[in-house]
Amino acid sequence: MWPATGTLLLGAALLALVAWLVVHDVARRLLRSTGLPRFSAACLLAGYAWLGLAGALWLIGGPVAEGAATTPSCTPSSSAS
User: Fold this and answer.
1) Helix or strand or coil: residue 72?
2) Quick check: helix, strand or coil at residue 32?
3) I need a surface site. Which of 5, 22, 30, 31 has the fewest CB within 10 A?
4) From residue 48, how far is each of 2, 27, 58 by CA, in Å?
5) pLDDT tens digits, the chain, 81 residues: what are they?
6) Which residue pairs, CB below 8 angstroms and at least 24 apart, start in 9-15?
7) What is the pTM for the complete model shown?
């Protein structure tokens, strides 16, 4: 109904979730271990970074009005031989 407001709220919610996870998740402590727990912790923290990036982009950029499918350069031409 209100894409601009919803996008801003979702971006803020993602950033709040990332902040909570970074503070309270065990992944930060597991980075000091060895083997599979360390690998899992590194993957979780990398995922939190990507989640934070997505939240920041949605909070700053707002909703996307057009995608690659609607741009003229990506539409098939009607003059195909």
Assistant:
1) helix
2) coil
3) 5
4) 27, 10, 15
5) 688 888 999 999 999 999 999 999 999 999 999 999 999 999 999 999 999 999 999 999 887 776 665 555 655 666 555
6) 10/55, 10/58, 11/54, 11/55, 11/56, 11/57, 11/58, 11/59, 11/60, 12/55, 12/59, 13/55, 14/51, 14/52, 14/54, 14/55, 14/58, 15/52, 15/55, 15/56, 15/59
7) 0.71
Which two three-digit tokens encode residue 16? Answer: 């709040």
Whether residue 50 contacts residue 15, with contact meaning beta carbons closer than 8 Å, is answered with no
Tokens of 17: 């979730």
The residue extents of the domains of the chain are 3-61
